């Protein structure tokens, strides 16, 4: 119990730092740091463009450097591998989604299903321009040795942060004593649900991916109902 | 009898849940949810029908959309569901709870390319009304005009197709026996799909604004094309109140008669003069104003009658001879032939019986001066409703006739709630050729 509380607190402080990362306070950062951030963003942008067009496996760090207009050696100053670039992107994505939900005053009093909807939807919106790459990354992550995979330390940390936030949202809306006996599993179940949603979204051929929205809306309603203690 | 009802209901349920995938079907979703909490108490349930029906109503309400409409329409025609379920389904409409603000925001962003607050000067995130396939929000445009913004629930088209598939399977027996007219399901599907098409609805609004101009007491909203795209439709805000709110203010008999008369006039003007109805004449589709004006709000399911139907109606309405005569029989046969079908004796008997019992009373062919039919008569309405159901289920009914009967059912029910006395024959005569 105690450890759970701790992790969720740790997650909050981390999520805060993440939301600050996405909106850097320019005055606080020195010019050098600012320059570094600009280059980092340039590398990530170039890499994502290439991942999307040439595929993840077909992209080399040299191509990334050329696209970003810097020397290949400079890339290594920022990222050791292209997997690192991908992970950095996913960290940004999670940070962005967490901030979107936290910074929206209208969501403060919203029901749980709406908060979770807003969270996943903002992730999908962030990922949308790089759809092809997301599919490849998902496949890549299935390899146990992959840095994107579930066993890499950094990916685990990212997932932890994400689920910590989900847990926070759940407890905000449904206090522990009102959850049923499966409540403690909710964040883990949500992770599987999220991956499923991602897969559904990738293969959704409906106009404007409208079916994914319907899927999200309805499945979250069911999910939250299942989480609550039966009144009878 | 009861056990037979029970099995048919169960069949409907089990077939539905077989094909139920969450995103693909409203009905499947409703049924899944209806039974999620049911297992524990199943043994205890004695009045399964009513309880399941009520559950189903609640769930469908939460979903609105196809399941709701399909449930209403098809169950009425096929008799798949027991009467308890029908009674519950009949209370649906205009009461559905909404999509949450985050979903509305996404839909507006995807359709109009910006946050609601950027596109409009003001936008109310909570809906003020539920439309059959979505919901309606108040807003003020950048130009300062007060408007109603209709937002569609995502993924409607696919779920309609799936739900219809489901119903097709469930109603196989009724189709085989001819109790469900051939093509009726196709027709319904077409209508439902048309309703999801907001571009088409936009055209409908402009069509009715033009065509209903002769009726000065009717208001049709103005379409704002600039704010309409994809899953969003924006029109000028209409004045008036829904029937329940209007009646709560205890309007005088005179006002109710006036409105009833105009509603009736509007209905037969559409049927007999332009051959097109703006929607099911359910009371949810009208707004009533204290100056006895009527505003139309929903243009999603416009129905155009075939020219054979219109010709037949012109000749059969206020028919001066006996409807048992050979001449009237020929009239019906000609109509059926024009539609490429043969009139079965059982259909003919059923149609004549219905006309004898009801139409001849509502629309006497040689009424006394100042004749008014009193729609407040409860006994008449109840008889009428239960007989209508039998008419729907009669073998060999034409889809257009069923549609007309259903439309009239909605009209009569609305007039009954208004307790209006209406100079029926006089109005119909105005529009006969």
Could you give a quick summary of the protein structure above?
The complex is a heterodimer of chains A (232) and B (433). With 232 residues, chain A is mainly alpha-helical.
Description:
The complex is a heterodimer of chains A (232) and B (433). With 232 residues, chain A is mainly α. In chain A, helix 2 packs across helix 3 and helix 8 packs across helix 9. The longest helix of chain A has 24 residues. Chain A is globular. The two termini of chain A are 27 Å apart. Chain B has 433 residues and is an alpha+beta fold. Chain B folds into three domains: 91 residues; 37 residues; 194 residues, no CATH class. In chain B, the strands form four sheets. In chain B, strands 1, 2, 3, 4 and 6 form a five-stranded antiparallel β-sheet that branches. A three-stranded mixed β-sheet of chain B has the order 5-9-8, covered by helices on one side. At the A-B interface, helix 6 and helix 10 of A face helix 2, helix 7 and helix 9 of B.
Shape, per Cα inertia axes of chain B: globular
Query: What is the number of independent domains of chain B?
Result: 3
Helix content of chain B: 55-70%
Q: Count of helices of chain A? A: 10
Low-pLDDT sequence parts of chain B: 1-23, 28-49, 61-65, 77-81, 90-97
Report the β-strand fraction of chain B as a percent range: 5-15%
What's the number of extended β-strand segments of chain A? 0
Shape of chain A: globular
Q: What's the overall average pLDDT of chain A, rounded? A: 82
**Structural class by helix and strand composition of chain A:** mainly alpha
What kind of assembly state do the chains in view correspond to? heterodimer
CA radius of gyration of chain A: 19 Å
Largest interface: A-B, 27 and 28 residues
Strand content of chain A: under 5%
Q: In angstroms, what separates the terminal alpha carbons of chain A? A: 27 Å
